[in-house]
Specification:
- It contains six helices and six strands.
- Helices cover 39% and strands 17% of the residues.
- α3 crosses α4.
- The chain is of the alpha/beta class and 202 residues long.
- It has a six-stranded mixed β-sheet, with helices on both faces.
- This is Alpha-ribazole phosphatase.
């Protein structure tokens, strides 16, 4: 099964760690996503289903696109961004000024350190795997082969890390640009759900 992961575009709080904050897309953010998706549609790339995080920076665009393409839309609670606890809505610059060591530890060793009162990486990973198991099941039941998944930077980085079989401490070095699309294969393996990288078509 092919899953195309579209990261939401720029938002009103793009200068901060947004996590579960429900901030809106800016006009520029909407345009970033629209431009990326249009490139795929122009190349005759279509999706059987559109799946989105419930947060409006993903969901509103997904709803609009599903209407436009006449495709089913599913909302999956488990593919929300990592929860950053006390750092929600705070810029990395401000965190660096107040607790530089904590930020550096989190940046370099996310498997061992987390935002104060935030979601540990292991729990975030577990939540995502539950979400993608649900997605795999829904796609299987409906005989869908391709899905556009509108989601977040942290989600894309973690899945790319798993697909490349890299150490999870390399998570933050993975690509996930605003409004850009990343293709993976969703696999059903003996040990559970797996991911494999694909080369982008257009």
């Amino acid at each position: 099964m092919q899953i195309d992961l579209l990261r939401h575009g720029e938002t009103t709080q793009s200068h901060t760690l947004r996590g579960h904050l429900d901030d809106e897309l800016t006009e520029q953010g909407w345009l970033q996503m629209q431009t990326t998706v249009q490139g795929y549609l122009d190349a005759q790339q279509y999706w059987d289903v559109i799946i989105s995080s419930p947060l409006q920076r993903c969901r509103l665009f997904a709803e609009n696109l599903a209407n436009q393409l006449q495709r089913p839309l599913l909302i999956n609670e488990n593919i929300k961004e990592m929860y950053f606890g006390d750092w929600e809505g705070v810029s990395t610059q401000r965190i660096y000024e107040t607790t530089p060591e904590l930020l550096a530890n989190f940046w370099q060793f996310p498997t061992q350190y987390q935002a104060p009162n935030g979601e540990p990486l292991a729990r975030f990973q577990q939540r995502l795997l539950i979400g993608f198991k649900q997605i795999h099941q829904q796609m299987q039941e409906s005989s869908w082969e391709t899905a556009l998944i509108v989601t977040h930077g942290g989600v894309i980085k973690l899945l790319t890390c798993l697909a490349r079989q890299h150490n999870l401490d390399e998570l933050l070095k993975m690509p996930a640009e605003l409004g850009k699309l990343y293709q993976l294969e969703l696999l059903d393996t003996d040990s559970g759900i797996g991911f494999m990288e694909k080369t982008l078509a257009p």
